[in-house]
Specification:
The protein has about 375 residues and is α/β, with parallel strands linked by helices. The protein has a domain at about 5-235: Rossmann fold. Helix content is about 35%, strand content about 15%. It has eleven helices and twelve strands. The protein has helices spanning about 5-10, 25-45, 50-55, 85-95, 120-130, 145-155, 180-190, 215-235, 255-265, 345-350, 365-375; strands at about 60, 70-75, 95-100, 140-145, 165-170, 200, 215, 245-250, 270-275, 290, 340, 355. The strands form three sheets. Strands 1-3-2-4-5-8-9-10 form an eight-stranded mixed beta sheet, sandwiched between helices. The chain has a two-stranded antiparallel ribbon with strand order 6-7. It is globular, with a radius of gyration of 20 Å.
């Protein structure tokens, strides 16, 4: 990447701040977004890689044997629809009509997140739901991280939708974000007159062709806005539709304790929670299934935030994928210099050379449990 390209990463493209596709069919929407992604790359003189454009684009997967149900996939902050591909590939084999949207500000240039807002993400989510009208009998919302918060918001604020929303699948859900990040964002926004030049939490030129590695303050602020609106709605009502959740006790991005508290307030008897961790804690709620996440035979210490929705066979983030996270060197002298995989936690970094785990070694079991949840009572 040239210096010119790097500088352009921190200047908005002007193409991807607003959701402008609400009157298009889903097929036309996918085509229009691909054209927009292509132009954004042309404008900063990046090579046009059609495969990369496809991986970052919204997509539809149509089943050979339809079950008349749909699944809307909603990616997380800084991600693209690619992060939901493995789950989409599984669901379409079960008969679901699968669609994945692209949230405004994503998959073009990191600076586009400086000029968008959570309201545009909500518009994209609502469009995704409405795109299934007259095509399926019922719809499941499948969200990862920020996508999970958007899915929850859709259910809380649009109680009557067409088609009806039959359940939520929330993966590493952003019920509350990491406390340190939350405080940092609040300070920067509250005293923005003092920190007017502080627009970025992290500026990173390291490439990952399916997500951003530079994080603006604005995007974290707008995630907090979604979470706040969700909390206000949840204070007034309980969630009665079925909820399936999966996350790590060791999640370094969002708060596991807040997610557990939220789940325990959900009242549907069909709810399920796959919680990965090594605490051995005896959760009294029988709907919470604690899954040991340590696999030392594979140098896996625990589960990271980003690993949950990704299969080990994923060509980009999987065991043999073409993407590798940077190694975090141990802060102490250690005898075992092997590189371990896990969450980017202080504990892990203290005692190990560490690379963030980017795939879920228990993905097939997760899909079995998801199938059970989706078919329960049918």
């Amino acid at each position: 990447m040239t210096l010119s390209n790097i500088l352009h990463n921190f200047q908005a493209s002007g193409l991807n701040s607003h959701f402008i596709y609400k009157n298009l069919s889903f097929k036309a929407y996918c085509q229009a977004v691909r054209a927009m992604l292509r132009k954004a790359r042309e404008d900063v003189r990046l090579p046009i890689n059609e495969e990369h454009i496809e991986l970052n684009s919204p997509f539809e997967l149509a089943p050979e044997k339809p079950n008349h149900k749909g699944a809307l996939l909603i990616h997380g902050l800084f991600d693209s629809p690619f992060i939901m591909r493995d789950i989409g590939n599984h669901l379409v084999k079960q008969g679901y009509l699968v669609r994945a949207i692209l949230l405004p500000g994503h998959a073009t240039i990191p600076a586009d997140l400086l000029t968008t807002s959570y309201r545009e993400w909500l518009k994209a989510t609502e469009y995704g739901v409405k795109s299934f009208a007259n095509q399926v009998d019922e719809l499941y919302l499948v969200g990862f991280s920020t996508g999970a918060a958007l899915a929850l918001h859709e259910v809380l604020y649009h109680t009557k939708s067409t088609p009806p929303i039959a359940g939520l699948v929330l993966l590493s859900p952003a019920i509350a974000i990491n406390t340190i990040t939350s405080i940092y964002v609040r300070l920067l926004r509250t005293f923005r007159w003092l920190f007017k030049d502080q627009k970025w939490i992290l500026r990173n030129e390291c490439p990952d062709y399916t997500k951003y590695t530079s994080f603006p303050v604005n995007s974290a602020y707008h995630l907090k806005r979604i979470i706040s609106e969700n909390n206000r709605a949840l204070a007034k009502r309980t969630l009665s539709i079925p909820v399936f959740m999966a996350m790590s006790e060791d999640d370094e991005t969002v708060r596991c304790d807040a997610a557990i508290k939220f789940f325990e307030r959900c009242v549907n008897p069909d709810n399920m929670f796959m919680l990965y961790g090594n605490s051995g804690y005896n959760y009294k709620n029988p709907q919470i299934n604690l899954v040991p996440s340590k696999k030392l035979s594979q140098k896996i210490l625990d589960m990271s935030h980003v690993a949950i929705p990704v299969a080990p066979t994923n060509l980009h983030y999987g065991k043999k994928g073409d993407h590798q996270e940077p190694i975090q060197e141990s802060k102490n002298e250690i005898q075992d210099t092997s590189v371990f995989l896990g969450a980017l936690s202080t504990e892990n970094e203290k005692f190990h050379r560490l690379r963030r785990l980017t795939f879920n070694p228990f993905f097939s079991k997760l899909m079995d449990q998801l199938d059970y949840f989706l078919n329960y009572g049918q």
